[in-house]
Specification:
Layout lengths: L1 E5 L3 E5 L4 H13 L20 E2 L3 E3 L12 E2 L6 H10 L1 H6 L6 E9 L5 E4 L7 E6 L12 E4 L10 E6 L2 E6 L7 H10 L3 E4 L6 E5 L4 E3 L10 E9 L3
Parallel strand pairs: 4-5
Antiparallel strand pairs: 1-2, 2-13, 3-6, 4-6, 6-15, 7-14, 8-13, 8-15, 9-12, 9-14, 10-11
Length: 237
Amino acid sequence: MQVVREREDYIILDDFLEPRDFSLMLEYAQLNDYARNPKWIKPWDLADRPPWQSGETVYHPYKKLPPGDPRRQYPTGTALDLLIDRILGCKFYRSKFQSTCKSMTARSYLHAQGSSLDWHNDAGRFAGAYAFYCHPRWHASWGGELMLIEDDIPDELLPEKEIMEDGEIRRRRNWNVIHKEDLSELLFARTTSTEFIFPVPNRIVIMRRGLWHKIGLVKDQAPMARCSVAGFFLPDD
């Protein structure tokens, strides 16, 4: 395992799994069942082609999933357990998340040609997120890069808007997820430092919540999908 770059809010690690474990993860990824989400998930732009995704796996050391829950629970008996174990054991996770997070999720994604993911910051109930790349090879011209804004752009800078819920007018800070002009103006005004991360096989990126990031378009000439296992660290149940 090699530290490529480490900052207060994120880390990039190469050769994250041992060669045999990575080979097992490649087989795990290609044997998964995938489907496209029938709903529009807001971080994806309306023009984006959404990825194919697997079902979700949950790591929770003290709690069992209820009967009928469609998610799988760690340990799964598959190669995914090797990845989860490695994440839980790495120094960045232990120092940033172990004392405050109670659970962790994992899901496989296939970003085929023409797919991407627009700017978002994994706010809400998440404490952080990760993405592990498990395609057998990649090329610098195929796209699919993770673009990360290093500047602190907190939710408090988003415009405050009135919404109506349960018959009452409430105020909430958010951006318009359809035209996104307010978000564009904020990112233009506040962004001076960025990181551009190639989806190198057997690389993982772990980040704390609040970092604005996006996935670049996977080019048409890419002969395979950009495959990742990604998930969130959650401070609650």
